[in-house]
Automatic annotation (TrEMBL):
Lineage summary: Bacteria, Bacillati, Bacillota, Negativicutes, Acidaminococcales
Domain Uroporphyrinogen decarboxylase (URO-D), first and last residues per copy: 98-342
Organism per entry: Acidaminococcus intestini
InterPro entries recorded: Methanogen_methyltrans (IPR052024), UROD/MetE-like_sf (IPR038071), Uroporphyrinogen_deCOase (IPR000257)
Pfam families found in the cross-reference section: URO-D
Official protein name in the record: Uroporphyrinogen decarboxylase (URO-D) domain-containing protein
Gene3D superfamilies: 3.20.20.210
One GO term (biological process): porphyrin-containing compound biosynthetic process
GO molecular function: uroporphyrinogen decarboxylase activity
Length: 342
């Protein structure tokens, strides 16, 4: 029997106390299943029951906020394995005025609120549950089919229409971001009422070195993140912030209203130990390269996980892959990761 409950272990870690072991979690996309609420609920419950994570990071479709503003998708056909095929909406035509504030009763949001409620109740509120959301700029980027910037993929601002909007329509873009943020706030309050402990909030790779200028990042990303996440904190919600991929500048988030920072410690970024010099009250999360999953790499995963545990045994942190693991991850790989922590 564990010495601490899942809630106790997470709470201790967030207070800077080293518990019996680091809290552990992992997440992945569930293509096809994610397109049907009841199927996704079943999959998320099974994922938790099989691997006994210390908290649940729900994994709705990455595009669900785009659906709120009119995108439609074919959830039976995917590209790059994790993105459902878009079937309708703007088809890349930019019209920022479409981003009007949406009611939290929007059917796509209400569906997610119900999923949170059902998962929370299934586990009798014993396991912390975090819903996934993306920075507002990513919602705009997705609706207008802009280049998706993530992980280790190259990015060229000259080929990304977001930067054209910044140049040509800065006020309209900021108004759209504000309206999305207000929608997020209303949605969060419904999630909180449904029992969500907090959010896994993805800044994707907008903080990547050399992509946005600091002024652009502050104007079109950071200020809206802070606006929203301050409201989450006011309600007592916990925030896991994810800055994704190479040179993702975790240092920038030291003053953010967040509780946990999740980043890729192996991609020209600081290690968990190195982060202690700048994160202070924020708990680091990560430790294991997600890119090796899905390659029958259980021996390597076990080795890297054990190495991470040893290197950070005197650090309060959350053990997780750097990002979502492959949809082809095997049970043997996942168990090699999970079972390294007793």
């Amino acid at each position: 029997m564990d010495k601490y409950s899942k809630r106790e272990r997470l709470a201790m870690t967030l207070k800077g106390i080293i518990p019996d072991r680091p809290p552990i979690t992992a997440y992945r996309h569930f293509p096809v299943d994610e397109g049907k609420k009841d199927r996704l609920i079943d999959v998320m419950i099974k994922w938790q029951e099989e691997y006994d994570w210390d908290f649940i990071k729900l994994h709705p479709p990455a595009v669900y906020m785009q659906e709120v503003w009119g995108d439609t998708f074919d959830f039976d056909n995917y590209y790059q394995e994790v993105f459902p095929t878009k079937t309708g909406n703007t088809h890349g035509e930019v019209n920022l005025s479409m981003f009007t504030p949406q009611n939290a009763e929007n059917p796509y949001l209400a569906e997610q609120v119900d999923m949170v409620h059902q998962v929370v109740e299934h586990f009798h509120k014993e396991i912390p549950v975090f819903q996934t959301m993306f920075t507002p700029l990513q919602t705009i980027s997705g609706v207008f089919d802009c280049q998706f910037i993530r992980r280790h993929f190259p990015a060229d601002r000259n080929q990304n229409d977001i930067f054209k909007m910044i140049k040509d329509e800065p006020k309209a873009l900021q108004e759209a971001l504000y309206n999305i943020t207000q929608t997020y706030i209303a949605y969060w309050k419904k999630l909180h009422d449904a029992g969500a402990d907090g959010l896994f909030y993805a800044g994707v790779s907008w903080a990547r070195e050399g992509l946005m200028t600091m002024e652009e990042w502050e104007t079109y990303v950071a200020q809206y993140d802070r606006m929203f996440l301050n409201e989450v904190h006011k309600d007592g919600g916990l925030v896991i912030y994810h800055t994704c991929g190479i040179t993702s500048n975790p240092q920038r988030f030291a003053g953010f209203p967040i509780d946990i920072l999740h980043w890729d410690q192996g991609a020209q970024n600081p290690s968990i130990k190195d982060s202690l010099s700048f994160l202070k009250r924020i708990t680091p999360m990560g430790g294991v390269d997600e890119m090796i999953f899905g390659n029958h790499a259980e021996a390597k995963i076990k080795e890297l996980t054990e190495k991470c545990l040893e290197e950070n045994k005197n650090v309060p942190y959350i053990l997780a892959p750097y990002c979502s693991v492959s949809v082809h991850s095997s049970d043997a790989e996942l168990r090699a990761f999970r079972d390294a922590v007793k």
